[in-house]
Known about the structure:
The complex is a heterodimer of chains A (about 725) and B (about 150).
Chain A: H1 7-30, H2 35-55, H3 58-75, H4 83-106, H5 115-129, H6 173-184, E1 188-196, H7 203-215, E2 218-224, H8 227-231, E3 238-245, H9 249-258, E4 262-270, H10 272-280, H11 284-288, H12 290-295, H13 322-325, H14 347-372, H15 376-405, E5 406-408, H16 410-413, H17 416-427, E6 431-436, E7 441-443, H18 444-465, H19 469-474, E8 481-490, E9 493-500, H20 507-516, H21 522-527, H22 530-536, H23 558-567, E10 571-577, E11 581-589, E12 594-602, E13 605-610, E14 614-621, E15 626-628, E16 631-636, E17 639-645, H24 646-649, E18 661-669, E19 672-678, E20 680-688, E21 702-707, E22 713-717, H25 719-722
Parallel strand pairs in A: 6-8, 13-22, 17-19
Antiparallel strand pairs in A: 1-3, 1-4, 2-3, 5-7, 8-9, 9-11, 10-11, 12-13, 12-20, 14-18, 15-16, 16-17, 18-19, 21-22
Chain B: E1 12-19, E2 22-27, E3 31-36, E4 50-56, E5 59-65, H1 66-69, E6 82-89, E7 92-98, E8 100-107, E9 112-114, E10 127-133, E11 136-141, H2 143-147
Amino acid sequence: MDVSQYLGVFLDESQEHIQTLNDQLMVLEQDPENEDSINEIFRAAHSLKGMSGTMGYKRLQHLTHDTEDVFSAVRSGQMKVTSHLIDILFQALDAIQEYVDTIRETTEEGDNDNEPIIQELNKALAEGTGEAPAAAPAASAPAAPAAAAPAAEAAPAAPAADLPAYKRIKLEDAQRDVMKDAIVAGKKVMGITVKIEDACMLKAARAFLVFKAVEESGEVVLTNPSSQDIEDEKFDFVFSFFLITDDDLDKVLSECKGVSEIENAEGELFDEKMVEDAYNLSDKPEEAAPAAAEAAPAPAAAPAAETAPAPAAPAPAAEAKPAAAKPAAAKPAPKKAVVSHTVRVDTEKLDVLMNLVSELIIAKNSLVSAASKTDGENTALAVNEQVEYLESVTTSLHESVMKVRMVPIESALQKFPRMIRDLEKKLGKKMSLTITGEETELDRTVVDQIGDPLMHLLRNSADHGLETPDVRAQRGKPETGSIFLNAYQDGNNVTIEVGDDGNGIDVEAIRQKIIERNYAPEEQAMQMTDKEVINVLFDPGFSMAKKVTDISGRGVGLDVVKSNIEQLGGDVEVKAKLGEGSTFIIRLPLTLAIIQALMVLVGGEKYAIALGNITTIEDVPRSDIRLVENREVIQLRGSVIPIINLAEILDVKSNREEDENLVIVIVKKGESLAGLVVDELDGQQEIVIKSLGKYIKPSRMISGATILGDGEVALILDSNALI
Amino acid sequence: MANEVAVVNEGTQYIVVGLGNEQYGIDIKYIDNIVRMQSITRVPKVQEYFKGVINLRGEVVPVMSLRIKMNLTDDEITNKSRIIILKLESNANIGILVDEVKKVVTISDGDIERTSHDRKSGSQTFISGVGKVEGGLISLLDLSMIIDDEE
Lengths: 723, 151
């Protein structure tokens, strides 16, 4: 089956499931008894397993299967959630994430078997359920999607039949361990084979009764065929199982025989050596047999070494050898180039789009009919009217299309609670993360790329910002440090604040560092304002970390954050107070592709300035310009604002050099203001941002170009780069 | 505009452009389009040989002056001036401004003399070889050298 076309969906959905697992595991860690989240986890794990099976990702399926087993045991109450278990599960989750990432990049799942994690999982499962009373082999067990894998251990008539059936069952690591532990603990382990009368019509029901009988006194470790197959009547008239119990063998056997229509039951006690033998049982016949077993028409082909994850069978399914035991049922998806990015769109948004397109068609038709009218003056009027209508429709259409590109920032933030949890353990600090405004919408491109800078800032807060518990105690702060992330829309921008109530930024310490490292001459460093000093933190190659940790402080830090954010058309600034905490404030444009802009003329050339950056437009007499430290400034309502002569820096000659008054566009970047001197204003316009192409590399003050209504190209000035 | 089209099965097709008194050949496989002169928006603070950007069917495409790049006098725009849109990679167009577009020729490999690497004159580095055609020689442009702007 060619499943490559589903790859995108698979990736999206598995990402969602992984996220659910992460979130719910965190909940579970806080509240180990929370049934809702256990159920949620189980569902997500189960879907993940099914999906990876369908897509033919064997290793991923194997790992998810074992993870699901653990959840299954937890759900059925056989196992308690411990913090150790949560740790293992998080590890497994990370490994799953790794598979998914690899698939995203290469469409293949890679060749890491993650055997250690699987063993950990199985061990945890075995330990957790070892003592628990077994539940009835009820039907709630979902069928393993790949259970179709027919393996050997065929009908009892198989050539190797000189051994009793229960001796031909191959044990897996975990089962062996469970059984050995039981023997050591003084319990009896027995292998039993039951034969049902040939005339029996309800084999599964009889088998069920047998299990029910033996489970009153003990625990079934492994069945052959799997309990799922037994339930589905996919077996001949013989089935075998291992039982851990306190009762004697004879008693158990007679209980089995006590069930009606049971022809015979035989078995024997296993000691450690026999368990080991069973474990070492060659799986060669299994490997050799699949073809034959598959070909055999009888439903007898019992899937060997494949226990369905029935809640009753606490032993993890024997899938630990998936590659050998299963003939490749599904081929891995054929190679395909990297998966395209998709946006999930609310159907409501699509409906709005559809409506607008219908209106557009109506507008076009009206325009056609208006234009074909014959009398002159009225035609012009009618056409004008329709053009106005058309304009309003296109504007709305435009807006709606942009909305389709918008996604909640939530998807970029989801991984953070987990990250903080891990950091908490690693750093030995208590911290809590509060996130608000996850629903704030941003362009998909921005949301995709904002994750890394935010992660960096949060790590910074956790590592450098928050003090150690004893320092916090000294300072009279609560033991648990709080880290916050607030996102909200602010006009044409989205602001994200990331901060903590920790140490803040020690300006003097940075100043010392600047001098120490000869980053700037001492004199200059002493004269820098606090803000300038803090801004040095964003310069490449300047890291404040006292010691290099793997959490932050490798010298690539805030400068990367800054350049990432600037690439997205945003900016970042810091507010900090020593001893009270620091806050990084990130401003991002709502969307990358379309902005509202003010068009200005400078020396006959037209430029666009993003409206979001403009505070006011002033008409200032030339005589008001003052010189401060050799820079031209104006005073405006009490504040001194440096002015920048655009004509000068754009290498053109201003048309208004002789004029008395200057037109000054006041722009802001964070809290700094600057005035841009232009010749003329040319109105406000919604512009589509285009790149200048690969070959031409203009200075940073040109952030792109746009195409105007008359087909001319106008350049976009990045006022942030000018300040 | 093509006065003469030579059709030979073997060899490479070149578009012959005029630049001052010289003729240059551009491998046709790199040419996406040839457009008439249109208004070019100047981009401040870029290399001198970039004339600016144009609107090519809704895309913004930079335009380079071949004359300035080859250290000739600045372009004089006439109604023979053309912008040749080159596509060396997907999604990355660049236009080069030439005095005129003359014809398309096919030059077989045997008729091309590869230039040696002595670089007497500045413009020679932009030439990958010289092709012999009826009535003269045509310098074949090495586009990667022209567009590569590590200067």
